[in-house]
Write a structure and sequence with these properties.
eleven-stranded mixed sheet, 340 residues, 24% helix, single chain
Length: 340
Amino acid sequence: MEQYDFCFCGDLYAEDPSKLSIGENLKTLFNRCKLRVANLETPIVIDPLAKPMNKYSALKTTPDVLKFLKQIQTSAVSLANNHIMDYGLKSAEDTVKLLTQESIKCYGYGHTLEEAFEPATVEVDGVKVGLVGVTTTFAPEALGKKDKPGVAGLTVITKINIDPREVLEEPAAPYIVGGEVLREDLDVIKNVIKKCKQGNNFVVTQIHWGAGLSPYNEVVLDYVTRLGEFLVDVGCDLVIGGHPHTIQPVNVYKGKVVTYSLGNFIFYPIMGPMENKGMILTKNLDEDGADLYFVEQNGNKVELLDAVSQNPKLAYFRYQSEKNGVRLVDNGDHLSVKVG
């Protein structure tokens, strides 16, 4: 069975992480990967007096999540998302401290904006890999600034594109809404990636973006497509997307793999109509392309899916990806993204 340098998992959250478990096939896959990376979609809250931020949804977990992260041999986690500050500054700081104590690297959050954008560096057989965490989805209070703790955020300006005839024929249609990342923020991430490229052989950007609510989370937003291409243009070798809580198609741009959403790795309990399927991307640094495995969550347990081509959800994923011009090879239990 093939060995991999990296595997990237999707969003990870659990209200009670002591109940989480993974299946035997997924354990086998993790054991075939030298480094395992995820997006930690929650602060670790140890202060019983911590109060949630006033926002649409505030998530928290307990220190037991560290046991789960160690069980799956997690190497690093991105904290650049719309939930790490849900229970305030102290809980975010506690999360960084606890992860660091367990030798799990974290990034995408910092005491200043510069620190929030600071990449983590991991090493695979002497090859240095820079991990950059960034988010376009955040509460205003959670955005890091020059002299303020918070997340590494890129501000997206929402625009309304009104054609009078379309508005009359399709009133309230969501497609009249567009988005554009602030030019100064694009300059920031450009400089971060270029600097990261100087000290590393390979650069990965994990980015929280797009829409998280069903049914809009099925759509790859226009700004997401453009931003993914921009990240590659300025030096990123692999783009790992998250936040929509559902699997979205992959793309290949200038020979680099761009994933728009890995979906959930495990999200316990599953909320509302949220998908219980997710994607794991595995990668060897000396090879083009990547392999895609898929997981399904049942209750508090997550396991690999087999017979990928027989699953209607994954068949649609493949159809959407191939519409992007991506060449996928069905290997039975996983798909391979072919480049070139």
